[in-house]
Amino acid sequence: MGKVARRFAGLVVVVGAGCSFDTDGANDSSQLGSSMGTEPTASAGSETDSGTGEGSASGEGSTSFVAGSTSVGNDEACVDSCAPAIPGGWNGPFYLVEAANPIECPTGFARQDLGFAGLTAEASSCACQCLEGAGDCRVDFELSITASCFGPLVNDSLQDGTCRGYNAAGANVRMLAAQAGAPTSCTPDVTMTTPEATWASASTFCAAPARGGDCGSDTCIAQSPEGYATQLCISSDGDAECPGGDWSARTLLHRSFDDQRTCLGCTCSGPTACVAQAFAYDSNSCGTGGQEVPFDSCTNISVSGGYSVGAAVDNGTCQASEVMPSGEATLTDPVTLCCAS
């Protein structure tokens, strides 16, 4: 513990007043998991890695970014900081900044990676309704003076509440009625409101550039700018165990999530057939006391002078089912941090 403390003496552990880096360009929460491996553009005269987007400590370049940070020959003592050796298969070293949102790394420190913690993704709110298509239920009818309704004198249709008036002129009138048309159609329509998924914190990995200078078996790296949150770490893709030794403080972060929140169960029950009745009245105004006429039967409607026929028709309505939220947001693309203890 004393050895590591000596290596990083003077590093600040939290972001404080007078920070020397600019967070105005930080990614907002709508970019969750979308900026992995990106790097900010260095200012004129600075050097950053230009490879795959992951920062490295390869030692290329020796940008002076803060007073007192100077590259020297490898045979001279390191005047910056000495970092423990990086185990094979691990990335780094880098300085870790934890904040509410991703930040832009200081000039000369390329963004090496980005991870998040504390995902909140509440279930969707669901509602189900039925979109009704207009039905066209009706009563088709014929009026005839023959016993078998052959050779009708009238052939017409009745909608709900309609009335037709005629004059029997003393004839024996018969009516043949039939239910026709289609009932209301029902189309389920789900309304889903999914709350925005948010992270509790974002961790920005800012690569620590290599410096010339002798650190023995360790590596000479640039010190972080004054006032900068400085925790020195290495990383590995996936959920891994720390290599131990100096790199033993473990944190598991994730770069993104798979959002499978949805709504299930929205269905509609509706009418399968029309509901209708036909009536004959011994008056020409379809008043009260009408005679119900059965369907598909040639029926004597017992009228004399002026008479009328009418219908009551129901297209039916739809009933929506209950709909339930389903699915969740699951963490993806893990990255393991192991920091110097």
Give structural notes.
This protein has 341 residues and is mainly beta. The chain folds into 2 domains: 2-123 and 196-253 and 333-340, no CATH class; 128-190 and 265-320, no CATH class. Helices cover 2% and strands 41% of the residues. It is built from 1 helix and 22 strands. It has one helix at residues 2-7, and strands at residues 81-83, 91-99, 111-120, 125-133, 138-144, 154-158, 163-167, 174-180, 185-193, 198-207, 219-221, 232-237, 247-259, 262-264, 268-269, 275-281, 291-293, 299-300, 306-314, 319-320, 324-326, 329-340. It has a 6-stranded antiparallel beta sheet, with no helix packed on it. Strands 6-5-8-18 form a 4-stranded antiparallel beta sheet, with no helix packed on it. The protein has a 4-stranded antiparallel beta sheet with strand order 7-19-16-17, with no helix packed on it. The longest helix is centred in the first third of the chain and has 6 residues, at 2-7. The chain is rod-shaped. 33% of the residues are buried. The model is unreliable at 1-73 (pLDDT under 50).
Short description:
The protein is mostly beta strands.
Q: How many E-type strands?
A: 22
The residue ranges in which pLDDT falls below 50 over 5 or more consecutive positions are 1-73
Overall residue-averaged pLDDT value: 80
How would you classify the helix and strand content by structural class?
mainly beta
Instruction: Compute the CA-based radius of gyration.
Output: 41 Å
Q: What sequence of helices (H) and strands (E) makes up the elements?
A: HEEEEEEEEEEEEEEEEEEEEEE
Shape: rod-shaped
Overall number of structural domains: 2
Q: Quick one: biggest sheet?
A: 6 strands, antiparallel
Tally of helical runs: 1
Helix content: under 10%
Please report which band the strand proportion falls in: under 5%, 5-15%, 15-25%, 25-35%, 35-45% or over 45%.
35-45%
Distance between the termini: 7 Å
**Strand neighbour order, sheet with most strands:** 3-10-2-12-22-13
